[in-house]
Specification:
By secondary structure, the chain is α+β, with helices and mostly antiparallel strands. It contains nine helices and twelve strands. The longest helix has 23 residues, at about 215-235. The structure holds (3R)-3-hydroxy-3-methyl-5-(phosphonooxy)pentanoic acid.
């Protein structure tokens, strides 16, 4: 029997195109160097046990035959869905214990759920010696995430799977962009609002707005899609001034959609007033994190101002590696 398998996947930040992504428009997502690690230990029983200590879940156990059935605690839903999707496609024979360790606060909105789904599929692929490629891992993990969050566009699953910085569009192959800022004189700054975003509610609010005013909201999505196209060009040329302006435009549209918040606006202004090229919310809005692009020389000052404005600076490098086996 295989020994323990340890797998990790990165968290993510949405750089451009949130909400429009739900309706099939392209977005740009980057993987961050804060990772979720999952360990899978095969056992000789038919029991599956899931531990997710950061979500206060320990010793949640179920027979393999009952996977995906009955009441499932919220903290176990994504992993159980991933096991269930895998098991339907590639029947599992024996039980195991899964334990996750999240290297970032699940409150940041860095995509701990999608990273859990992707690491679960990758670990099961190793356990069963299937060595699924990234496209297959994505497909199964996305199906699992969709069971729990039916409107999820899959951008976070793509970032956890492939890593790097990607143009992601529903039902299209991902395009990898060459953008990591390591050799450049610019940096991405992240500020956590201290408020956990409620993604399904915000996605629902945008859907209501779209039902009430389909023409105006479609125009916003098309304008955001155009921003994504321009951002791709600016990234290829490392044109940070243009990228900053595009972030500001994207934020104007997100504000118009009604998904920004006072706290996000305060942190965005703190970044912009202290030398950032531009700033916006990242993800569903309502809370979670804002991002800014700024000259490296301004990073400390901006982080101080984010803190002074009641935010929490989060240090990340972007373009991190996708899902990988740490050891087995
Ligand atoms: O709240 P997050 O960080 O998962 O971001 C949601 C982004 C949306 O575009 C609003 C939803 C999606 O699945 O693309």
């Amino acid at each position: 029997m295989l020994n323990k398998i340890t797998v990790s996947a990165p968290g993510k930040l949405m750089l451009f195109g949130e909400h429009a992504a739900v309706y099939g428009f392209p977005c740009i997502v980057t993987a961050v160097d804060q990772r979720l690690t999952l360990t899978l230990e095969p056992t000789n029983s038919d029991k599956i046990t899931i531990n997710a200590p950061e979500l206060q879940l320990t010793g949640y156990a179920k027979n393999l035959a009952d996977i995906g059935k009955g009441e499932i605690p919220k903290a176990a839903q994504i992993i159980e869905a991933a096991i269930s999707v895998f098991h339907q496609k590639y029947p599992l024979k024996k039980g195991f214990t899964i334990t996750t360790k999240c290297g970032f606060s699940p409150n940041y909105g860095f995509g701990s759920s999608s990273a859990s789904a992707v690491t679960t599929i990758k670990a099961l692929s190793a356990l069963t010696s299937r060595n699924l490629d990234q496209s297959r891992i994505f497909k199964l993990a996305f199906a699992a995430v969709r069971l729990i969050q039916p409107k999820n566009s899959g951008f976070d699953v793509a970032a956890a799977t492939w890593g790097g910085t990607l143009i992601y569009q529903l039902d299209h192959p991902v395009q990898e962009l060459n953008f990591d800022l390591i050799q450049s004189n610019a940096a991405i700054i992240v500020g956590y609002t201290g408020v956990k975003a409620d993604t399904p509610t915000l996605v629902g609010q945008v859907a209501d707005k779209r039902n009430q005013n389909p023409v105006a909201v479609s125009r916003i999505f098309m304008a955001v899609s155009d921003i994504v196209t321009q951002a791709k060009v600016a990234m290829a040329g490392n044109d940070f001034v243009v990228l900053g302006k595009l972030m500001n435009f994207n934020q104007d549209y997100l504000r118009n959609l009604g998904v920004s918040s006072e706290k996000l606006e305060t942190l965005i202004s703190a970044a912009k007033n202290n030398g950032a090229y531009g700033a916006k919310l990242s993800g569903a809005g309502g809370g979670d994190c804002m991002i800014a692009i700024a000259p490296k020389a301004k990073v400390e000052q901006i982080n101080r101002e984010i803190e002074a404005s009641g935010g929490e600076p989060v240090n990340v490098a972007i373009g991190a590696e996708g899902v990988k086996i740490e050891n087995n």
